[in-house]
Amino acid sequence: VLDKRTATEREQAQRQAELLAGVTVALARKAGENDQLFGSVTAADLAEALGRQGFEIDKRRIQLAEPIKVVGEYTVTVKLVHDVAADFKVIVAREP
After folding, report:
1. Residue 80: which region, alpha, beta or left (left: phi > 0; alpha: psi -120 to 50)?
2. What does the alpha-carbon distance between residue 23 and residue 42 come to, in Å, rounded to a whole number?
3. Please, what is the Cα angle at 27 between 47 and 38, to 5 degrees?
Protein backbone atom coordinates (compact mmCIF):
# COMPACT_ATOMS: atom_id res chain seq x y z
CA VAL A 1 0.00 0.00 0.00
CA LEU A 2 2.84 2.37 0.85
CA ASP A 3 4.59 1.79 -2.50
CA LYS A 4 1.35 2.45 -4.37
CA ARG A 5 0.75 5.68 -2.46
CA THR A 6 4.34 6.80 -3.01
CA ALA A 7 4.02 6.10 -6.75
CA THR A 8 0.77 8.08 -6.91
CA GLU A 9 2.34 11.01 -5.03
CA ARG A 10 5.32 10.93 -7.39
CA GLU A 11 3.03 10.91 -10.46
CA GLN A 12 1.07 13.87 -9.11
CA ALA A 13 4.30 15.69 -8.29
CA GLN A 14 5.65 15.06 -11.80
CA ARG A 15 2.44 16.42 -13.35
CA GLN A 16 2.69 19.46 -11.09
CA ALA A 17 6.39 19.84 -12.01
CA GLU A 18 5.49 19.87 -15.72
CA LEU A 19 2.87 22.55 -15.11
CA LEU A 20 5.23 24.60 -12.94
CA ALA A 21 7.93 24.53 -15.61
CA GLY A 22 5.74 26.78 -17.76
CA VAL A 23 4.92 29.23 -14.97
CA THR A 24 6.28 32.74 -14.67
CA VAL A 25 5.70 34.69 -11.48
CA ALA A 26 5.88 38.45 -11.97
CA LEU A 27 6.20 40.66 -8.92
CA ALA A 28 6.50 44.44 -8.73
CA ARG A 29 8.38 45.94 -5.81
CA LYS A 30 9.59 49.39 -4.85
CA ALA A 31 13.23 49.78 -5.76
CA GLY A 32 15.89 52.41 -5.27
CA GLU A 33 19.07 53.21 -7.12
CA ASN A 34 20.91 50.34 -8.84
CA ASP A 35 17.61 48.39 -8.84
CA GLN A 36 18.04 47.44 -5.16
CA LEU A 37 14.67 46.48 -3.69
CA PHE A 38 13.31 48.19 -0.59
CA GLY A 39 12.82 44.93 1.28
CA SER A 40 13.06 41.59 -0.52
CA VAL A 41 11.14 38.80 -2.20
CA THR A 42 11.00 35.72 0.03
CA ALA A 43 9.90 32.11 -0.38
CA ALA A 44 6.62 33.09 1.34
CA ASP A 45 6.01 35.79 -1.31
CA LEU A 46 6.65 33.24 -4.06
CA ALA A 47 4.37 30.64 -2.44
CA GLU A 48 1.61 33.26 -2.22
CA ALA A 49 2.12 34.27 -5.88
CA LEU A 50 2.02 30.63 -6.97
CA GLY A 51 -1.15 30.19 -4.91
CA ARG A 52 -2.78 32.97 -6.93
CA GLN A 53 -1.97 30.93 -10.04
CA GLY A 54 -3.56 27.79 -8.59
CA PHE A 55 -0.50 26.03 -7.16
CA GLU A 56 -0.63 25.08 -3.49
CA ILE A 57 3.07 24.99 -2.63
CA ASP A 58 4.43 25.12 0.91
CA LYS A 59 6.98 27.93 1.21
CA ARG A 60 9.43 25.48 2.82
CA ARG A 61 9.56 23.55 -0.48
CA ILE A 62 10.75 26.61 -2.39
CA GLN A 63 14.53 26.48 -2.63
CA LEU A 64 15.65 30.07 -2.30
CA ALA A 65 19.21 30.34 -0.97
CA GLU A 66 18.54 33.90 0.13
CA PRO A 67 15.74 36.42 -0.44
CA ILE A 68 15.77 38.21 -3.79
CA LYS A 69 16.95 41.80 -3.27
CA VAL A 70 17.55 43.09 -6.80
CA VAL A 71 15.22 43.70 -9.75
CA GLY A 72 15.71 41.00 -12.38
CA GLU A 73 14.81 37.58 -13.72
CA TYR A 74 15.45 34.46 -11.65
CA THR A 75 14.95 30.71 -11.91
CA VAL A 76 13.71 29.21 -8.66
CA THR A 77 13.46 25.51 -7.80
CA VAL A 78 10.61 23.87 -5.91
CA LYS A 79 11.22 20.47 -4.35
CA LEU A 80 7.86 18.68 -4.65
CA VAL A 81 8.70 15.20 -3.31
CA HIS A 82 11.97 13.39 -2.62
CA ASP A 83 13.24 13.12 -6.18
CA VAL A 84 10.88 15.42 -8.06
CA ALA A 85 11.75 19.10 -8.42
CA ALA A 86 10.60 21.83 -10.78
CA ASP A 87 12.00 25.17 -11.84
CA PHE A 88 9.86 28.22 -12.49
CA LYS A 89 10.70 31.72 -13.59
CA VAL A 90 10.43 34.75 -11.32
CA ILE A 91 10.52 38.25 -12.72
CA VAL A 92 10.95 41.02 -10.18
CA ALA A 93 10.18 44.40 -11.71
CA ARG A 94 10.40 47.94 -10.43
CA GLU A 95 7.05 49.14 -9.11
CA PRO A 96 5.79 52.04 -11.27
Report:
1. alpha
2. 17
3. 100
pLDDT tens track for 86-95: 999 999 999 9
Distance spanning both ends of the chain, measured CA to CA: 54
pTM for the complete prediction?
0.89
Question: How many C-alpha atoms does 26 have within 13 Å on its Cβ side?
Answer: 3
Angle (CA) 87-21-90 rounded to 5° is 60
d(CA 64, CA 42): 8
Distances (CA, A) of 92 to 8, 10, 39, 53, 57: 35, 31, 12, 16, 19
Helices (H), the chain: 2-21, 43-52
